[in-house]
Sequence to fold (330 residues):
Amino acid sequence: MVVRPDPAALQALSTPSRMLSGPASGFSVVRPAPDGTVRLLAPDDAGPFALLLGDGRWGAPALRVEVREPTTIDYRHLALAFWQGAGEGHLDLVVFGRGGTVSLAGAARGGPLPFALGAAVQSLELAPWAGPGARVRLDDAPCEPLDRLEGWEATDWDAGCNLALVEVELELHRLELEGAPRRLDAPALARLPGDDEEVGALAVAAAFERAPARAAGPMLALGDATLELAGRRLVLRGGDDQLATAELDAALDAPGWLLLERRAGVLRGEAVVGGARASLVAAAPLVGGGRAGFGSSGPRVRFTAVERRRRDDAPRGVDAWALAARTWRA
Fold:
């Protein structure tokens, strides 16, 4: 699949480290012009900034950009970045404008080699999974010294993608991402009927089956809280905030069940997949009512049973663990 994100819709985050953090404030990094072009401005003494290409994960992605530098600032850093997760694998094609070089950082390391940003439109392409001869291209030509590096075999993971900017102003002429979607930017989520602010769900459980898919999987929701099994990682979120994670040592195609419950402002999630079990607990308010839901952040997930308990079903609370066991046996 090839996607061409609208450059004017890119979200800019201020990133003091590789851990993506809060939105840029006080100025606009992405600046659409009346003539249809888009300028990217990372001011002097600010940033670094990441321009997110959605929140999805891609299998064997390739990222291509065409840019020109109408004005020079200072550091003049541009990177095409693939990342596995916070603190995990990453691979960056880095242009250092002030030094006139290009290099690779992360899983494969190499360079620097001469490469200068300038007023003419230039192209860069990073495709780690494309195989020898097509991994790195500069101005539509293979960059053999970087392509021949060792370490490419360490990039066997599904990736998130972004552009990184430090003290640079660029005019963006092309932005293209190609790959197999693994985790969707927005999950497919079905809300169960009958819940509202007054009669919300206390717990929801579901049994599922899934085909092997490394970075996507089943999800439960209570209001704005979600529990997702992403590959082997169990993730508990409150709104956009990641509250807790755990790993399950289980086959990716093993069946299992999920359970998410809320009691007195405490969220609790559990997963059993094959013979592996993991549970998470976090203090967080329930946002957006108590509607229960189930869905998936990726393809090829089948739910075989879903059950919910509401306040009016169990005024004294619900035995969530028994609920999950009954759901799994179904």
Remarks:
- The longest helix spans residues 320-329.
- The chain has two domains: 2-181, 187-329.
